[in-house]
Amino acid sequence: MDSEIKYIKDIEIQAKGIVSGFISGMHHSPYHGFSVEFAEHRPYLEGDNLRFLDWKQYARTGKRLTKQYEDDTNLRCHFILDASASMFYPESYSKIKTAVYAIASIIELLRNQRDAFGLSLIQDQALHLFSEKSTKTHVQQIRLRLAALLASAPVPHNSPDTTLHYIAEHLKKQALIVIFTDGFFTEASMPAFEHALQHFKHNQHDVIVFHVLDEATEVQFNFENQLYRFIDLEQQSEIKINPQALKNIYQNEMHSFLKKWETVCQKYSFDYFKLHAGNNYNALLHAFLQKRNRLKRRL
Questions:
Q1: Strand 126-133 vs strand 228-231: parallel, antiparallel, or unpaired?
Q2: Both 57 and 185 in a single domain?
Q3: Which of 37, 88, 146, 255 is 20–30 Å from 108 (CA)?
């Protein structure tokens, strides 16, 4: 319990810090133009209440823009987190920790927009944790579950399709599905995962996939020129090799693996982004806000 309390505080501090840094840098970066205080701007029209005119924007740009507030929930967002054993690698700054901080940070943005959000896990069973809400209690419940996940031991899990189909079937209203995974399922599971994406598409959900990997070791395969013992965290099988002897072959296989993921997402017009463990979160938040704003214009 003590470790969970520590992680809850850590998640909250990290999320607020990540979002604060993102917001403060927006006006001096490629991310300029995204509002996180209100739903969105629209051009000022004759007869609009001047009380809602963004005078700061007018002074800075000369454009008459109205702050468009909305009383009800704007968007429904559902996070799907791959919590299988391989996501707990590497120990220094794991993929699961990267994904948890990313989810907590996006939730901070969603709260400012009055959007609803939910969470499900890909773990040892089909588990639909939280439906989409936007209350403070809901935020704390999700943080508590994410903290418990970080404090827990890895659980091997090979096939995500059961969980994904369950989620697709139980999301009654159109939602933005945000998936965090390293994609290290069995070869036979990839068609099943694609079929689950097709299920989301059929139910008129939109999807954004953040492919979480450790850049140095999993993508580049950068290891010292010596013998290593590699352990498959999902299957618990082991192999002893010198990585330098297989580096080129591995990198070619990894390139094909990443391309396959990107192609599957593009097939259903879903967004796909690579997220490296422990990496800067600004690009992730930028990609998410772009996606959200595009969806809002379609609603």
A1: unpaired
A2: no
A3: 88
